[in-house]
Design a protein that fits this description.
Layout: E1 2-5, E2 10-13, H1 28-39, H2 45-71, H3 78-97, H4 102-122, E3 125-127, E4 132-134, H5 136-153, H6 157-186
Antiparallel strand pairs: 1-2, 3-4
């Protein structure tokens, strides 16, 4: 037992295992410290709202891009894009909200970009016999989903949504334009020497 003196009156404090402490105070400090170490500091209302908005925005980004890929019958569809966007946003939000320095957050973003590169490489399929490569657009869509989710995780909601709108414009509005250009330049499928799949104008 230790006694701390102030200008007004002494204040008695007890250790967690002090048997001289009142029963209602025994182990109180130990429980509080353990809970704080396990769960971390409880967020305030502002932080909860801020984190929730950023994660929902990331889910929305992955949902709209993934839905477009799902409708056009590609391997990486709705759930894949939503998981990529949510995972990316969680990493960035946790790093940003935990008080990491900008350089530390930058290294986390670099790791995300590298990991998404491997994931995008997994959806690219090269058909050697047909001299075609499929999945490039899908891989690029996954990469852009992660990039927009990073912006959402950092609180740049406007930039993230603007990038998503432009991505949908590229994926949907430019699809027919791309088909016409490819057919006019390369002609038939047999004359395509670049190994790019132009059967539907979308890889």
């Amino acid at each position: 037992m230790a006694t701390c003196f102030t200008a007004q009156q002494p204040i008695t404090t007890y250790s967690a295992c002090d048997r001289t402490a009142p029963p209602d105070l025994r182990g109180a400090n130990t429980v509080a410290i353990t809970a704080d170490q396990i769960f971390g500091p409880l967020p305030d209302a502002a932080e909860v709202i801020r984190v929730t908005i950023r994660l929902i925005t990331a889910l929305f980004i992955g949902g709209v891009i993934g839905l477009q890929r799902e409708i056009t019958h590609h391997a990486a569809g709705l759930r894949t894009h939503m998981l990529v966007s949510l995972g990316t946003a969680v990493l960035v939000v946790c790093a940003h909200e935990s008080g990491m320095t900008p350089s530390d957050v930058s290294r986390i973003v670099q790791g995300i970009v590298t990991g998404i590169g491997f994931l995008g490489g997994g959806v690219i399929l090269k058909l050697t016999s047909e001299r075609e490569i499929r999945g490039l657009t899908t891989a690029a869509g996954i990469w852009l989903t992660a990039a927009a989710s990073v912006a959402a995780g950092l609180g740049r909601i406007g930039s993230a949504l603007l990038g998503t709108v432009l991505a949908l414009f590229v994926l949907m509005a430019l699809r027919k334009v791309e088909k016409k250009i490819v057919r006019r330049v390369f002609g038939s499928k047999e004359n395509n020497t670049l190994g790019i799949d132009n059967t539907d104008g979308d890889g």
